[in-house]
Design brief:
Elements lengths: L12 H10 L4 E4 L2 E4 L5 H18 L4 E4 L4 E3 L4 E3 L3 E5 L4 E2 L2 E5 L4 E6 L4 H5 L1 H6 L7 E6 L5 E6 L5 E6 L5 E4 L4 E4 H4 L12
Parallel strand pairs: 4-8, 9-10
Antiparallel strand pairs: 1-2, 1-5, 3-6, 4-5, 6-9, 7-8, 10-11, 11-12, 13-14
């Protein structure tokens, strides 16, 4: 992700929201900086569709809803971001500053791209951990079958479990779903070059 090069280095949240609402492109806001959202590879998109489709099929009528990467969330006091997939259980709570932003995801999924992997594992996850509603965070590697699930414990700590076996089933207790690793990676060509 590249920072937007504008006349000033620090943006207020209100300035960001006004700019974002008028923009044809997506941008994320973290601690006063605005970042362009890069495009995605075919692998990234395939994994995104497989994952959101599987979750959506399991959650119809459950009171939980699956949203794709166009729904923004406010993560803590200083971040507005677009997760690849998110699940909100119950009624979506919206940010008082912007009705197109939710504040209560239960599960967030990020598909790791070479250009965003450090961000998704680091500062973005740190922002996500500020959300009291968030119970699970999935990081899906797009270059090899590997899913990392972070599950919030009653102590507030996060327990990491890696899934790499081809027949692995990922239990998602926060939303009562299961993801088969084989389904997450169905029709993904690992030989395809990654540009993003």
């Amino acid at each position: 992700m590249a920072a937007i090069s504008r006349l000033k280095q620090h943006w207020t949240i209100r300035e960001y929201l006004a700019m974002e609402d008028a923009s044809d492109e997506k941008h994320e806001y973290v601690a006063g900086m605005i970042y362009n959202m890069a495009g995605a590879s075919r692998k990234h998109i395939r994994i995104h569709v497989n994952t959101s489709g599987s979750l959506n099929a399991q959650l119809i009528g459950s009171g939980c809803s699956v949203y794709a990467s166009d729904l923004r969330i406010r993560a803590g006091e200083r971040a507005y971001v677009y997760p690849d997939v998110l699940v909100v259980c119950g009624k979506p709570e919206v940010d008082p500053l912007n009705q197109n932003t939710v504040t209560n995801p239960t599960l967030i999924v990020e598909v790791l791209s070479p250009s965003t992997e450090d961000y998704d594992r680091g500062s973005k996850f740190a922002s996500y951990r500020e959300l009291d509603s968030l119970q699970e965070y999935l990081l899906i590697n797009q270059n090899t079958p590997h899913v990392m699930r972070y599950l919030r414990q009653s102590s507030g700590d996060w327990l990491l479990t890696d899934f790499i076996a081809p027949d692995a089933i990922i239990e998602l207790p926060s939303i009562g779903c299961r993801l088969a690793l084989a389904d997450v990676y169905a029709d993904v060509d690992f030989e395809e070059e990654d540009d993003l």
